[in-house]
Design goal:
Layout lengths: L2 E5 L6 H11 L4 E6 L7 H5 L3 E3 L5 H10 L4 E4 L5 H6 L1 H22 L2 E3 L2 E2 L23 H20 L2 E3 L1 E3 L1 E3 L12 H11 L3 E3 L7 E5 H13 L11 E2 L3 E3 L1 H11 L5 E3 L3 H8 L8 H7 L7 H16 L3
Parallel strand pairs: 1-2, 1-4, 2-3, 4-5, 5-7, 6-8, 8-12, 9-11, 10-14
Antiparallel strand pairs: 11-13
Helix pairs in contact: 5-6, 7-9, 7-12, 9-12
Amino acid sequence: MKNVLIIGSTGQIGSELTMKLRGMFPDGQIVAGYIPGAEPKGILLESGPSAQADVCDGNQLLDVIRKYDVDTVFNLAALLSAVAEKKPQLAWKIQIDGLMNILEIARDRHLSVFTPSSIGSFGPETPRLETPQDTIQRPKSMYGVTKVTTELLSDYYFLKYGVDTRSVRFPGLISHVTLPGGGTTDYAVEIFYAAVKGEEFVCPIAAGTYMDMMYMPDALQGAVDLMLADPSRLKHRNAFNIASMSFDPERIAAKIRARIPSFRMRYEVDPVRQAIADSWPDRLDDTCAREEWGWKPRFGLDEMVDDMIAELRKRFGTA
């Protein structure tokens, strides 16, 4: 992994992953791929190459991959869960038709491809506690349907054509750098912004709704470690369960209140997001990832809460 194209480089994951890879591979070319209206800015633009790379335009992707002699693609283009429910046709076009474009190029040019799956790939029939690596999925959201299809397509191209496809099932991701955009687990980021700003938080997810979450540094390290892993050790490829922490709104609010006693929260449950959350597992079993490529998160709930509050206080200049 030396010359890397990150599709969706200005999104929640992509903006941080691009900078991480540029730090890890200073002699390579880490290309920040973007679509019009989502161009890189600031250090993301200034620290390395960037190129328009619309996942739905196979010819454009091929031109970029040839120009920078790309050997690895991180395909992060997607509509998040709540947005995908409003725009299901667009979600399919980006997440499935777009993936087919990448896989066909990868087949011809022998590229490695990382396309993240999600906890959203599971459904209400899935075991909710310690969800196994291999189990029934049957999601009921368009986001979940596309993620299961992503896993199957990636496996197909590996088994039939030998394309080096790899993936993890990300839980909800928490970051102090970039706000998310329309995911069911977004409340777990937004709650920190409200707390640090001294605002009341209106929670769209009901009390008692547990979901797997992960701090962004662990998510980035997991993606990189998997792509660097010895392929001979990988019994699974698309996609590995990875887990770090699981909580409901009451628990995270209590953790924040222990550090910011004035914090206030009330509920206005969003029925669309709640229905999606109710169909997801409470906690994944990530044994396969630990055994096959050494997955191990660094941040637990308390460490994440401390770091989020400290970083956001620096940003907003609050005590």
